[in-house]
Amino acid sequence: MKKTTLSLFALSSLALATSSALAAGEPVIGLITKTDTNPFFVKMKEGAEAEAKKLGAKLLTASGKSDGDTAAQITALENMAAGGAKTILITASGDAISPTVKKLQAKGVQVIALDSPFKGADALFATDNYKAGVLIGQYAKAAMAGKPAKIATLDLFPGHPVGAQRHNGFMKGFGLPAADAKSNELSKDPAVVCMADGFGDRAKSQTAMENCLQKNPDINVVYTINEPAAAGAFNALKKAGKEKGVTILSVDGGCQGIKDTQAGVITATSQQYPLTMAALGVAAGVSYAKGGKKASGYTDTGVTLISAKALPGVDSKDIKTGMDLCWGAK
Fold this sequence. Notes:
Layout: H1 2-23, E1 28-33, H2 39-55, E2 58-63, H3 70-82, E3 87-90, H4 98-106, E4 110-114, E5 123-126, H5 129-144, E6 151-155, H6 161-174, E7 192-197, H7 202-215, E8 221-224, H8 227-239, E9 247-252, H9 255-263, E10 268-271, H10 274-289, E11 297-300, E12 304-307, H11 319-325
Parallel strand pairs: 1-2, 1-3, 3-4, 4-5, 5-11, 6-7, 6-8, 8-9, 9-10
Antiparallel strand pairs: 10-12
């Protein structure tokens, strides 16, 4: 009974929010993120809101409680479609949403993946996550300058394509055996002395790094799935008195992450552009609502390696460039 009441309340709220938009003929577009706390998704929401306002669309928003919460995303998909959304943008937590997406598509709803691919999406606007991993892997390799590497990887969680692509891209860039971008399996090598899941969360990643240090206290390279994870890893290293001389790599390029790179918390990071993803998604939704075709295929929204120190043979941009671009349009 409680579950039904919540669902009806959510549906009623969406109906109230969209009734005026539908009456005015405004396109209704939904945005569903993995969480509403990760700065990356907060910025994506801001970008979608700005583009919707610019193009005269009504934007509905929702999120999961944590990375991996597909149940909440499924509920949001159903409620947004019932509330009048003809395009829904989603950073999917997994393929568990695919059957629901297929049902909505059969009713004429366009479902576009942002950042994270999933089976059955009409289109994908995202970073080339494999390339993002390759870039930081190449930087880490150059930073080690031939010294033996003892690597820890703080990954997302098993089976997620973004987590696998970044991890395997890092391995490829570092010159280690790696699966290609189509694989959802994490590549392994003896140089990787610890693999742990931090779920892209700062506190969980700190715990994961503490456990890795107990397993091998001589870790000198740390790959992290995102910048909150990198901050958690650094906290663990600092707590253990081992923060100096460890190369920490990450992906995101948010403003705080660039500040952390300048401060030496992160050695280098691959910068993404969530505002671009969101703006392209909203524009595709407005076009579809006005009689256009559904979006299709993959659109690469760009990635740039940012570091405080340039290294020979590695194409990177400086801190000023990173701050100028942090999560804005590339």
